User: Fold this.
Amino acid sequence: MKSIIKNVSGIALMAWVILTAVSCNGFLDEKLISDRTTDNYYVDEQGYEDLVKSAYSPLREIHKLRGLTLLGTDIFTRPGDPALGGLNQFNEYSAQSINPQDGNVAVYWTFLYSAIARANTAVDRAPEVSMDEATKMIRVSEIKFLRALYYFYLVQQFGDIPLPLNEITEVVTTAERIPEAQVYDQIIKDLEEAIPVLPPSQEEYGRVTKGAAQHLLAKVYLTRGYRDFAGSDDLAKAVSNATDVINSGQYRLLDTFGEVFRQGNEENNEILFAVQYSANTVLNGDGNEGDGNDAHSLFGQGVDGLIGMDRSSTYNRQQALYVPTRHLSSLYDTDMDTRYDVTFLRIFYATVDQGDVKVGDTVLYFPKWDQPWTAERMAAAKYLVVNYDEYYMNVAKQNQFPPLWKFFEAGLPYGDDKGTRDLFVFRLAETHLIAAEAYLKAGNEPKALDHINAVRRRAGTPGMKDAMELSSVTIDDILDERARELCGEEPRWTELKRAGKLIERVKLYNERASEANTIKDFHLLRPIPLSQIERSSNVVSQNPGY
Assistant:
């Protein structure tokens, strides 16, 4: 079915620009082509549907902002030798760079609050809209899910934050940081109001469903369950919501991990919620030709400098922005776990004739991480071989490492934002892992094992599924399993922070970050953007350490 956000109405977006009086670039900069205004457009079904759709569209740009969610963790780092410099503030927690003036922090903050403003407008305008009441209630519930999601992203990164819940109709110059406990209360309120109204499935694929909202609520309760303001029944509610999704009959774990990521199979029964992209890339973002999903190009490494390789679409564009750590590779049992060779690409073939190398010849090969080649075997090979202990730290071998491959998209023109595949946000495998973590924290290890082993069994090679099962489980086992199953999908930084494991695992497994040795307790929150502080007429406090 056609996704609801693959073609957002220009009229709705034009009206939004008029409403907020914010200067924007790209597809929000619409010219007024009629006498439509927010007051006479958001009054009937067509106008309100367009407003709701416009609250979905920020999902694309928000989920492209991965620096704050992936770098500086145990499974993603930066390439190169730390001794050569080139620190990245979010990976090495550089005191000189990660500060309130950082543009990445400001953009993340601004995009999310812009999305929340759209959601607030949709909630506030609903009572006056003339349309079928049942449909309107569902649309308002979709919006409450989106508002909850956007606030959940913000509160995990920044702690106490402003909490506007109404449409802004006049200039506001003050901002009050609300305690994060109250922010969680509001997130939960929105979701608990939405869940009874949302349908199990929607006619238009991409709309929020009851299962997506229950999954998010389970994760919110689990996250709050670690906090000093946790409710006494938070873990029980996390379990209840997660198991309701699992037992709903709406979703299932696909038979193989590879099937989940098979191109053309994005709308599968494991997906609860995804960021939608269109084959018509003009509809995917700011209206520029070529806008789209960029996940295929961010987790790789340059191969076009090797003999027999060129800049072509054969391997998508390979950019080393989010580099898998050695630790991530080492988590896989390469003989039992099918996810290893679905997740990583270990062999590159020539794409052009060059010298003695012909198209189709092996150019670059990565042995399995736990089965390294000997020096003699490597010397005899007619192509470059890079063992596990040489990944991304060996300058002589051009910082090579096996890239993440599960996001590969065949048939694309060469470029970093031309993808048309949907980007998964929630899927059932994570629902199982949320349930496992909630059960474990509540002291029920047998139930935790049931859920983590459901994910592990699916990942096992034929004949090895029983061997994949764990007989005991710790929080580190669950975090390791999340890495194997969800690397590149989950916001890893917030997962580690929730479990109280961020600093420990960064120091253990992120080689560049551990070498810099600058991560401190205050890094568990991001700085409030200086731009927010400066444009507020009242005093807005800064997070400690910044």
Remarks:
- The mean pLDDT is 89.
- Strands lie at 76-77, 271-275, 323-324, 347-349, 362-365, 384-385, 423-427.
- Residues 3 and 531 are 35 Å apart (CA to CA).
